Amino acid sequence: ISVEEFVAQTLERIKKTDEKIHAFITVDSQNALEKAKAIDKKIKSKEKTGICFGMPISIKDNICTAGLKTTCASKMLENFVAPYDATVTARLKSEDAIIVGKVNLDEFAMGSTTEFSYFGATKNPWNAEYVPGGSSGGSGASVAALECLASLGSDTGGSVRSPASFCSVVGLKPTYGLISRYGLVSYANSIEQVGPVAKTVEDVAFLLNIISGHDTHDNTTANNAHVDYTKDLKSGISGKKIGIISQMIGDGIDKDVASATTSAVSKLQDLGAECIPISLDAVEHSVAAYYTIASAEASSNLSRYDNLRYGFDFSTEGYEFKAFVSKARSHFGPEVTRRMLLGAFVLSAGYYGKYYLKAQKVRTMIKAQLDEAFKKVDYLISPTMPILPFKIGEKIDDPLKLYLTDINTVTANLSGIPAISVPFSMSSSGLPIGIQLFANSFKEKELLQAAHALQ
Ligand code: GLN
């Protein structure tokens, strides 16, 4: 079939499926079809096409797309259209990918369930009463529901891996600095990365080839030699050493998740890996450190939404300056407001040393303990999420409970190392369970090889 027909069918599927799943905030049918037609033309005239030609891809709605809304699932950016493409968007487009639309998230990527979206929650495609994980829930759900072939999400504390695990797809949080953040709306810049979400490890490797690498627009990107992540993907893990993180398989873990982890370890052992327990005791403080640092950076980043630089239309009539700004800012949702207050508090003169500084020390401790661990092992393993997907609404009123579900994911963000979630099994109740593998910084190639062996 032609690319146009394929894309038309994909758009039809989105229309039908999304009534139930609500993964998309914006579907860009017209541009998608036009791009498809242009590719068909290229093929007909034997012109060279990009390597993603015709691939329908969705993009998390906090990654800029020129001419197409980027809302961050917030009232504050309800009608914001970025005048430029994020580097990752531009790289996909230049390889002839078809951007079918922008997908849902927790407002400004703050959350773990995609329930905190101004546009309403996304549902888990495996059971629509359950959360899809978050904050890149739209990415996970759109791939799992076959509304696109792949998606880009962002991962500040687990936002690519949580939905990957809950929706049974693959999600990678790359090493800090591997992928450009230019055009990713900042939440907590020092820990976040764009990450690919796809059905298979092969597809994730394929996308990583395209979106990774140095970018003059983002000075935090590393200028490393080019790596082909798709090459030698099937090398296996025979002879490799894997550390099972003790702190991530103990108390509070769901029994189905625990037994899936045991089976994953056995599978890796059967494939010739040696698995040993590894203790990282700083992990016990990681959630506290993460929410301190992430909120601090968020409170600073979100100060630009004052309805002067960014915001939505409402009349200034009858307001003096401060009242106007506070009125506008009162339109942030509850979770974003909580983070901004928390962040301003931990950065305030009287509490900076007590909270923010301590959190940074925990971060250094985590990194040091990981450096030690990687002297002994090639990889680390844990369940991605300690619990199974839960019902929509079940935890929304208990922020602390929600924060604690990030216990296994935030370590990779605080330390900068790469981590991947691979679908492993289903619970007795029919809900997906993902397993997480970590490797040392810039060892994505090895990480993908291990993930491929596990998948
Ligand atoms: N759940 C975490 C948070 O709410 C992670 C979010 C993310 O990675 N963007 O901050």
TrEMBL record:
<dbReference type="GO" id="GO:0050567">
    <property type="term" value="F:glutaminyl-tRNA synthase (glutamine-hydrolyzing) activity"/>
</dbReference>
<dbReference type="GO" id="GO:0030956">
    <property type="term" value="C:glutamyl-tRNA(Gln) amidotransferase complex"/>
</dbReference>
<dbReference type="InterPro" id="IPR036928">
    <property type="entry name" value="AS_sf"/>
</dbReference>
<dbReference type="GO" id="GO:0006412">
    <property type="term" value="P:translation"/>
</dbReference>
<comment type="function">
    <text>Allows the formation of correctly charged Gln-tRNA(Gln) through the transamidation of misacylated Glu-tRNA(Gln) in organisms which lack glutaminyl-tRNA synthetase. The reaction takes place in the presence of glutamine and ATP through an activated gamma-phospho-Glu-tRNA(Gln).</text>
</comment>
<dbReference type="Pfam" id="PF01425">
    <property type="entry name" value="Amidase"/>
</dbReference>
<keyword id="KW-0648">Protein biosynthesis</keyword>
<keyword id="KW-0067">ATP-binding</keyword>
<keyword id="KW-0808">Transferase</keyword>
<protein>
    <recommendedName>
        <fullName>Glutamyl-tRNA(Gln) amidotransferase subunit A</fullName>
        <ecNumber>6.3.5.7</ecNumber>
    </recommendedName>
</protein>
<keyword id="KW-0547">Nucleotide-binding</keyword>
<dbReference type="GO" id="GO:0016740">
    <property type="term" value="F:transferase activity"/>
</dbReference>
<feature type="domain" description="Amidase">
    <location>
        <begin position="5"/>
        <end position="448"/>
    </location>
</feature>
<feature type="active site" description="Charge relay system">
    <location>
        <position position="60"/>
    </location>
</feature>
<feature type="active site" description="Acyl-ester intermediate">
    <location>
        <position position="159"/>
    </location>
</feature>
<keyword id="KW-0436">Ligase</keyword>
<feature type="active site" description="Charge relay system">
    <location>
        <position position="135"/>
    </location>
</feature>
<dbReference type="InterPro" id="IPR000120">
    <property type="entry name" value="Amidase"/>
</dbReference>
<comment type="similarity">
    <text>Belongs to the amidase family. GatA subfamily.</text>
</comment>
<dbReference type="InterPro" id="IPR004412">
    <property type="entry name" value="GatA"/>
</dbReference>
<dbReference type="InterPro" id="IPR020556">
    <property type="entry name" value="Amidase_CS"/>
</dbReference>
<dbReference type="GO" id="GO:0005524">
    <property type="term" value="F:ATP binding"/>
</dbReference>
<comment type="subunit">
    <text>Heterotrimer of A, B and C subunits.</text>
</comment>
<dbReference type="InterPro" id="IPR023631">
    <property type="entry name" value="Amidase_dom"/>
</dbReference>
